[in-house]
Specification:
By secondary structure, this protein is an alpha/beta fold. Helix content is 40%, strand content 17%. The chain has a domain of 215 residues: NAD(P)-binding Rossmann-like Domain (Rossmann fold). The chain binds uridine-5'-diphosphate. The site of uridine-5'-diphosphate (UDP) has 14 residues, from helix 7 and strand 8.
């Protein structure tokens, strides 16, 4: 029988793409989301792509009793825990909301995973846990600096909670996946990022500008010590990212992970500057973007990109999409989403 995987944040951006990847690899995903930054109707798109109707619970994971009901109704083999608030700026304004939501939901899902003998727990972490790094590429061993925001701290604390909880047992194993900059959309053109609040990340800001939802966009700083003065990030296509979750799950379930918790960086190992990203968009779509140079954005770090050798060697992960693919798919999705 197909193994059931609980995907928290299942209607979110990375969650929905991962649900598709899980289905394509023979798992039965169960989705749970409180809909605070996504819409359950995104699962219709998932169904158009896969032909499968995914069971979905509209539940807040801070509600222990309701969440426990899902574990009672299904024999869950693995949990992929995406659900979290994730806006860096908002977390500075509302730190308590971020700590309460992101930590409480993690505690609930982790406790229930232990109680109901789940075998694999995959946690959405972020390169933000490295803080303001001195040099790149960063490996999983690169020491963490102080987190730049309450959001980043919830990820650092989340990693520690999982490590401490699972350190002295051998039933539930966990993987912490540190994402660099997820971007792009499903190659079917039917699915992509659909945030309820205005986008703040570079790629959706670019596509929203191109389609006319914004008159122009800002480049936050061209006076950094980089090759063209703008910040460097490692943009990773959401389908490559999604597949890493399936691989991490399979790795644990096939008994290949010895230690209770393992950590992987997920980026493509190449940094792109903001100006290079804009150029890639303009060249791929033949659309000229209206942008201006603006002051630095507070809290931004100058440059960070990944060394992902560990995910390649241990999980067999080989990201196949480049920045041009990210731009092309994001643009196709922006046009589709505007019509939905
Ligand atoms: N950025 C920008 N204009 C925007 C949004 C982002 O110049 O409207 C820059 C931002 O300063 C950073 C990079 O794009 O250098 C990536 O920002 P994003 O918010 O997407 O990711 P993060 O900062 O979390 O890595």
């Amino acid at each position: 029988m197909s193994k059931k995987v609980l995907v928290t944040g299942g209607t979110g951006y990375i969650g929905s793409h991962t649900i598709i990847d899980l289905i394509e690899n023979g798992f039965t995903p169960i989705s749970v989301d409180n809909g605070v930054n996504s819409m359950a109707s995104i699962l219709d798109q998932v169904s158009s792509i896969t032909g499968i109707t995914v069971e979905h619970y509209n539940i807040d994971l801070c509600d222990f009793a309701k969440t426990e009901q899902i574990f009672k109704e299904h024999e869950i083999t693995g949990v992929i825990h995406f659900a979290a608030l994730k806006a860096v700026g908002e977390s500075v304004e509302q730190p308590l909301r971020y700590f309460k939501n992101n930590i409480d939901s993690l505690l609930t899902v982790l406790e229930l995973s232990q109680k109901y003998q789940v075998k694999a727990f995959i946690f959405s972490s972020s390169c933000t846990v490295y803080g303001d790094v001195l040099s790149s590429p960063v490996t999983e061993e690169t020491p963490m600096q102080e987190a730049a925001s309450p959001y980043g701290r919830t990820k650092q604390i989340g990693e520690q909670i999982i490590s401490d909880t699972l350190a002295h047992q051998n039933k539930l194993k966990a993987v912490l996946l540190r994402y660099f900059n997820p971007a792009g959309a499903h190659t079917s053109g039917l699915l992509g990022e659909a945030p309820s609040t205005p986008a703040a990340n570079l790629v959706p800001v670019i596509t929203e500008t191109a389609i006319g939802k914004r008159e122009s966009m800002s480049i936050f700083g061209t006076d950094y010590d980089t090759r063209d003065g703008s910040c460097i990030r490692d943009y990773i296509h959401v389908m490559d990212l999604a597949h890493a979750h399936t691989l991490a799950l399979q790795h644990i379930l096939s008994g290949k992970q010895d230690q209770p918790v393992d950590i992987y960086n997920l980026g493509i190992g190449q940094g792109a500057t903001v100006l290079e990203v804009i150029k890639a968009f303009e060249e791929t779509t033949q659309i000229k973007l209206n942008y201006q140079i603006a002051p630095r954005r507070p809290g931004d770090i100058m440059a960070i990109f990944a060394n992902y050798d560990k995910a390649k060697e241990k999980l067999g992960w080989n990201p196949k999409y480049k920045i041009q693919d990210i731009m092309r798919t994001a643009w196709v999705w922006e046009q589709k989403r505007t019509k939905l």
